[in-house]
């Protein structure tokens, strides 16, 4: 920090209140300041990199030139507080609360069932709030765009969109411009006539309060005066390591750039911020030009637009869109391409923050805009103290060549983007893992200039992004094509030239080398077709025969159509309550989540929202950087010398048991994976602790073998447990008597839980008796309690675990929180201080593990009519370095048969031991992998028989009461009913014919449709884990406190428990309250998991309430006309206990693996799903068109919550099967450690039409996978390729594109795998 500088006073407003900070630190972001300094914890910390939207707030700034106030949604985790001078910040607490009044947005999201765990909800609310401040009656498309930067792992987004659409002027899609509702169109009337007891209304829109823009917070007058003040001065804020300087004039900035030539300019902090946070970059001085108006100026000239480098990307999009609407089409071709790409670049929050200049100057290899600006001949206007100069944004600049780059003292003032000419055509293409909010795999800009009135190429430029460290030009290829005609001969030559010039090494960062090479030529083909179409429109004068263009086949034209961003719609049906049910009985009614309003106002308290405790310290974990090595030494001396560092915790500090022999809490002598915890740093702040982590020096000695893949584990005979087998019939004999046999292999990738709230814990040691209070985000607090007990060697009764609510779990918070809780408890025990541990997203993903990847070998014997007679399947899962929950392999075998009765079966399963973090429980527990494998076998049989997959499914489905492979009796009545109803409600057969008709008319786009049945086994498979307890207190005022052993993960378990208690006690829910899950109140609880938490805890609550009601019966009989309060008061006077423990002993469940038989599951849940998709064969992109789900959920306690579970689980399954891909380096390092690299579904991935009945598991998301497979099969068939292919999961754009083999995939070079080191390795 420059020693002569002194800090100025930072002034900004938060929720209408003035904030004056005299010691502003440039390294402190707004999120941290809100949560720690202002105690506004509604804004959540989830990823820290601006990629999830959980920390969204609104910033408002007055522009003294335009005299307008601009409201923007931004991510608080990236926004330095020093950038806020003169700005008004609005958080979720500022727009409404239960203590004052809730805002209409908060009300509608909560009452519209748009919350589950609630952790993402404040961010959703604020994105919508910023939208409504700018557009009080937005279009549905604007809603989708506004929410594109917000992730939700629970709801599946449909409920959020539906409740938000109530703000639209017309919340219907106005399909096809007819002005009629899409759901009223005849072509969409596919649902059966409603029965009297079937409901579709989950909430009453008419009850919502109206939005009144006049009631919003005004912009602070003081900030208006500050903005208009002509005597503004340069501001300086000095932090511990970094100084922030914010000049007021351009000349001051240029002087500072001379003085600090290496200091970066920071506008939105979307590039410098993440580099400082995640890569450890430190800049002693940061220069902020945000207050310099010249850098945001827009100038129109005769030949184009000059846009200030300080304009945000959202402003650039609006400026260019405005020009497109005013100017002739021929002048705006470059502008239209930029606008198109900007709509899918990042999320709305990042577009509001990132600047045009920053995007250009950073020259990221994946840049969306630089390729277009380069082909559009954009010019960069530079300025320094020496004067102004211009440089072209060309290949030399993008490559960073010194003579074509900025000098250290120069800044980018503005960018000139010229108009396009009549004979100049510009196009841009991109392909990413998902449609919105994702870095492109490949992006490109292409431009061609023709000699007037001809198709002769006079100028040509092509730039690609995503294939190297910088944007790459195909300049030499373009030069060689000058003078050529725009025809097929030219195109064939262009393919060859570009592939030769734009080289892509096999070890290219990001991988997907063959896919990216294919996109290079696929985009070139799209460009050729697009320009050919334009030429046919523009050349009106008669030409010689040599200038006639060949007609483009109608079948080829679909290559030019891009998938639009659409708004999901649909119908949700559920069983209505009996007309005789008392009005106060809430069971079966769509009651909104008990915490829904608090989720939406930010008042719902999560683990890290708890106030700082006196003398609290922070913990940060030190993890292994090697996959298999001996620990030679741990040197923490340098870390301990840093300011604020208190101690370093190692295995030697553990007074009790350090985990197990195989699974140490803190590594001793050896590490077995990258990410294994070795020690932990205790410091006075999280910042100090994380800095100290980098200073802990560990010396390793690498060991052999190092095993990452399942195939390597098989080769090394490396397993975590013995092989398990299930068998029925005579498999060998059956194989001898079939018409056909197919054999194959399948790989199913793993999945990251990506719960929005990362793992976190607060441990508070008591001053006596070694007691400890533990506040933790866990699905199994009793397991945390037991683990801490053994680790500290103190009795369990001294340890109390509290779980108020969990911000998503999905199995990832069953066993893992115990590790973090125990290590934190060791630190608290040693220091005597309260200790808080909050994992960063990157740490969470690196350490924890996820869903088990699967590798399977199968052999299927069947008759020509499709009847399967024999099946032999071997399954191997990647368990990681320790067993953890890899006994899941047994459950995979139990669930593998799904809905099919095959008389001769043999299933084998074994977990492989590898040098990766141990994989753990995940929603579905083996069924999503095993079910997909079974359905893939069904699809393969269908292809061999020449029959449709649904015919094979029907032929092999359970038809009557029979026994499963493990000899448990099963009745398929509900399964068959769900299957038939799904066929009917989805209009499967008529739509399949429509799909086939579409495919016959389109070569480059294909549709697919698939219907999949489900037989899902519920429960743990062990009697012990089905017990539950509850404690119900009735107080003398009549209020009731309900406690039970279940944990609120977003599934609404507490809401359902209150509904049950209300019914049993025959009093309204308003009398009920639930506080928290607490091991001191209800002990010895079982993990909330296996789809059975609400059921078993509900029975315990029911039991407790029935006991209480029985005690009250004599009182009620004496005074039948009395009130509840009178009865309770009388009972107290009679000394009748008003407290009762309820207990449910659980379902019996057993499995004898020696005999291969048992009754492991209490019951089954059956269902079916039908999905339709459209794929782009040239890029691998796909669009989810429609999904229909039918499921028998028996009697739903709360249909609204259960429908939310359907949709959330389905979308999570859609992610597993089509989007989410875990990638590891050859050294065993997880390469995707956050939302930038690991893509979960966003709002644009929701099926365009989404209809559901019942409650389903995530397995039904595979209906989308098989619809994709169906579309790929159609493409392959048309190209004369075999259709008996296996599509591995997930069906990413890469896999889809490469499966649609064509001339482009054939022309790309294939590298010899032995000649290069790949960027990533497959671990399944």
CA radius of gyration is 31 Å
Alpha-carbon distance between the two ends: 49 Å
Q: Runs with pLDDT <50, length 5+?
A: 173-194, 541-548
Strand order of the largest sheet: 22-24-20-31-28-29-30-41
Number of alpha- plus pi-helical segments: 38
Shape: globular
Strand content: 15-25%
The amount of helix comes to: 25-40%
Q: Which class do the helix and strand fractions yield?
A: alpha+beta
Strand count, sense and closure of the main sheet?
8 strands, mixed
Write up what this structure looks like:
The protein is α+β, with helices and mostly antiparallel strands and 1324 residues long. It contains 38 helices and 47 strands. The strands form eleven sheets. The chain has an eight-stranded mixed beta sheet, with helices on both faces. A six-stranded mixed beta sheet has the order 6-19-47-46-45-37, sandwiched between helices. A five-stranded mixed beta sheet has the order 2-1-5-3-4. A hairpin with a 2-residue loop joins β1 (10-14) and β2 (17-21). The chain is globular and about 95 Å long. The two termini are 49 Å apart. The model is unreliable at 173-194 and 541-548 (pLDDT under 50).
């Amino acid at each position: 920090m420059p020693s002569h500088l002194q800090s100025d006073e930072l002034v900004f407003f938060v929720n209408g209140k003035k904030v004056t900070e005299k010691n502003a630190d440039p390294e402190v972001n707004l999120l941290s300041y809100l949560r720690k300094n202002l105690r506004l914890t509604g804004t959540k910390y989830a990823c820290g990199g601006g990629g999830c939207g959980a920390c969204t707030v609104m910033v408002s700034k007055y522009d003294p030139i335009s005299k307008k106030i601009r409201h923007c949604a931004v991510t608080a985790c990236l926004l330095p507080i020093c950038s806020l001078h003169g700005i008004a910040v609005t958080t979720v607490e500022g727009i409404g609360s239960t203590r004052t009044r809730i805002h209409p947005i908060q009300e509608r999201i909560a009452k519209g069932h748009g919350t589950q765990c609630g952790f993402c909800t404040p961010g959703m609310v604020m994105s919508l709030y910023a939208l409504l401040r700018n557009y009080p009656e937005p279009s549905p498309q604007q809603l989708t765009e506004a929410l594109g930067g917000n992730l939700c792992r629970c709801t599946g987004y449909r409920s959020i969109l539906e409740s938000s659409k109530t703000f639209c002027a017309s919340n219907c899609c106005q399909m096809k411009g007819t002005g009629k509702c899409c759901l009223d169109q005849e072509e969409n009337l596919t649902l059966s006539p409603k029965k009297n007891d079937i409901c579709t209304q989950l909430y009453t829109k008419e009850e919502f309060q109206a939005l009144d823009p006049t009631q919003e917070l005004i912009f602070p007058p003081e900030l208006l005066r500050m903005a208009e003040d002509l005597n503004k001065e340069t501001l300086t804020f000095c932090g511990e390591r970094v100084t922030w300087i914010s000049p007021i004039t351009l000349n001051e900035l240029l002087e500072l750039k001379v003085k600090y030539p290496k200091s970066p300019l920071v506008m939105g902090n979307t590039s410098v911020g993440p580099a400082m946070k995640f890569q450890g970059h430190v800049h002693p001085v940061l220069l902020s030009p945000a207050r310099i108006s010249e850098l945001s100026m827009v100038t129109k000239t005769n030949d184009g637009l000059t846009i200030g480098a300080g304009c945000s990307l959202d402003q650039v999009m609006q400026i260019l869109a405005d020009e497109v609407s005013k100017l002739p089409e021929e002048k705006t071709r470059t502008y239209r391409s930029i606008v198109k790409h900007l709509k899918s670049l990042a999320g709305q929050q990042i577009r509001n923050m990132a600047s045009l200049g920053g995007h250009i100057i950073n020259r990221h290899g994946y840049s969306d805009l630089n390729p277009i600006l380069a082909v559009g001949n954009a010019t960069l206007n530079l300025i320094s103290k020496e004067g102004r100069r211009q440089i072209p944004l060309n290949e030399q600049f993008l490559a960073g060549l010194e003579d074509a780059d900025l000098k250290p003292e120069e800044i980018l003032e503005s960018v000139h983007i010229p108009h396009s000419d009549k004979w100049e055509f510009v196009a841009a293409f991109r392909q990413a893992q998902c449609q919105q909010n994702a870095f492109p795999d490949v992006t490109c800009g292409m431009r061609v200039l023709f000699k007037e009135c001809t198709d002769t190429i006079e100028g040509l430029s092509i730039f690609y992004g995503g294939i190297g460290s910088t944007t790459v030009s195909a300049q030499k290829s373009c030069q060689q094509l000058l003078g050529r005609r725009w025809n097929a001969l030219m195109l064939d030559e262009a393919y060859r030239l570009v592939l030769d010039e734009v080289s892509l090494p096999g070890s290219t960062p990001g991988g997907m080398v063959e896919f990216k090479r294919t996109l290079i030529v696929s985009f070139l083909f799209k460009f050729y077709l697009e320009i050919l179409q334009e030429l046919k429109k523009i050349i009106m004068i008669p030409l010689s025969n040599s200038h006639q263009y060949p007609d483009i086949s109608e079948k080829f034209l679909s290559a030019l159509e891009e998938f639009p961003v659409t708004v999901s719609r649909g119908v949700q049906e559920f069983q209505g309550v009996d007309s005789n049910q008392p009005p106060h009985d809430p069971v079966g009614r769509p009651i909104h989540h008990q915490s829904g309003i608090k989720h939406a106002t930010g008042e719902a308290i999560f683990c890290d929202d708890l106030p700082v405790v006196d003398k609290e310290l922070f913990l940060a974990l030190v993890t292994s950087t090697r996959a298999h090595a001996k620990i030679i030494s741990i040197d923490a001396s340098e870390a301990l010398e840093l300011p604020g560092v208190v101690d370093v915790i190692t295995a030697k500090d553990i007074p009790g048991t350090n985990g197990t022999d195989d699974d140490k809490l803190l590594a001793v002598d050896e590490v077995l994976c990258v990410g294994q915890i070795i020690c932990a740093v205790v410091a006075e702040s999280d910042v100090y602790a994380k800095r100290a982590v980098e200073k802990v020096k560990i010396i390793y000695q690498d060991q052999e073998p190092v095993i990452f893949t399942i195939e390597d584990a098989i080769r090394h005979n490396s397993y975590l447990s013995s092989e398990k087998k299930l068998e029925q019939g005579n498999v060998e004999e059956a194989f001898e008597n079939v018409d056909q046999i197919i054999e194959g292999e399948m790989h199913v990738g793993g999945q990251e839980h990506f719960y929005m709230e990362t793992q976190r814990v607060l441990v508070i040691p008591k001053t006596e008796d070694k007691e400890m209070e533990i506040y933790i985000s866990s699905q199994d607090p009793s397991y945390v309690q037991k683990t801490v007990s053994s680790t500290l060697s103190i009795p369990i009764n001294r340890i109390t675990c509290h779980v108020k609510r969990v911000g998503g779990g999905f199995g990832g918070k069953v066993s893992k929180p115990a590790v973090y809780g125990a290590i934190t408890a060791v630190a608290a025990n040693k220091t005597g201080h309260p200790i808080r541990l909050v994992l960063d997203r990157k740490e969470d993903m690196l350490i924890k593990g996820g869903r088990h990847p699967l590798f399977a070998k199968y052999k299927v014997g069947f008759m020509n009519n499709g009847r399967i007679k024999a099946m032999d399947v071997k399954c191997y899962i990647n368990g990681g370095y320790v067993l953890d929950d890899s006994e899941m392999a047994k459950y995979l075998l139990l669930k593998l048969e799904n809905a099919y009765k095959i008389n001769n079966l043999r299933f084998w399963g074994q977990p492989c031991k590898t040098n990766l973090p141990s994989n753990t429980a995940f929603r579905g527990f083996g069924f999503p992998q095993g079910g997909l494998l079974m359905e893939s076998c069904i699809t393969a049989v269908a292809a061999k028989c020449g029959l449709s997959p649904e015919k094979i499914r029907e032929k092999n489905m359970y038809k009557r009461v029979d026994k499963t492979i493990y000899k448990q009796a099963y009745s398929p009545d509900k399964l068959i009913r769900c299957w038939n109803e799904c066929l009917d409600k989805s209009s499967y057969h008529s739509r399949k014919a429509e799909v086939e008709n579409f495919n016959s008319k389109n070569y480059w786009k294909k549709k697919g449709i698939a219907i999949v049945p489900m037989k899902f086994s519920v429960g743990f498979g062990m009697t012990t884990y089905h017990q539950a307890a509850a404690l119900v207190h009735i107080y003398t005022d009549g209020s009731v406190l309900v406690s039970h052993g279940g944990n609120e993960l977003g599934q609404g378990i507490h809401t359902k428990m209150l509904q049950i208690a209300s019914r049993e006690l025959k009093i309204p829910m308003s009398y009920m309250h639930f506080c928290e899950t607490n091991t001191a109140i209800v002990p010895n609880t079982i993990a909330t998991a296996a789809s059975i938490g609400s059921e078993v805890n509900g029975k315990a609550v029911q039991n407790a309430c029935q006991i209480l009601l029985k005690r009250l019966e004599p009182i009620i009989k004496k005074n039948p006309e009395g009130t509840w309060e009178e009865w309770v008061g009388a009972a107290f006077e009679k000394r009748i206990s008003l407290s009762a423990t309820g207990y449910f002993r659980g379902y019996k469940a057993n499995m004898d693996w020696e005999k291969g038989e048992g009754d492991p599951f209490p019951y089954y849940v059956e269902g079916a799903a039908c999905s339709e998709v459209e794929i782009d064969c040239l890029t691998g992109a796909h669009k989810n068109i429609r999904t229909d789900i039918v499921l028998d959920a028996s009697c739903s306690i709360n249909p609204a919550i259960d429908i939310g579970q359907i949709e959330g689980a389905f979308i999570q399954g859609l992610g597993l099967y089509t989007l989410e891909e875990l990638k590891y380096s050859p050294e065993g390092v997880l390469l995707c450690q956050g939302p930038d690299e690991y893509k979960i579904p966003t709002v644009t991935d929701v099926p365009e039409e989404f209809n559901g009945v019942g409650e389903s598991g995530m397995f039904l998301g595979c209906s989308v996978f098989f619809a994709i497979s169906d579309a790929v099969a159609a493409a392959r068939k048309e190209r004369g390729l075999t259709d008996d292919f296996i599509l591995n999961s997930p069906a990413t754009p890469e896999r889809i594109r490469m499966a649609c083999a064509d001339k482009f995939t054939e022309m790309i070079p294939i590298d010899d795998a032995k000649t290069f080191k790949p960027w990533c390795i497959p671990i399944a």
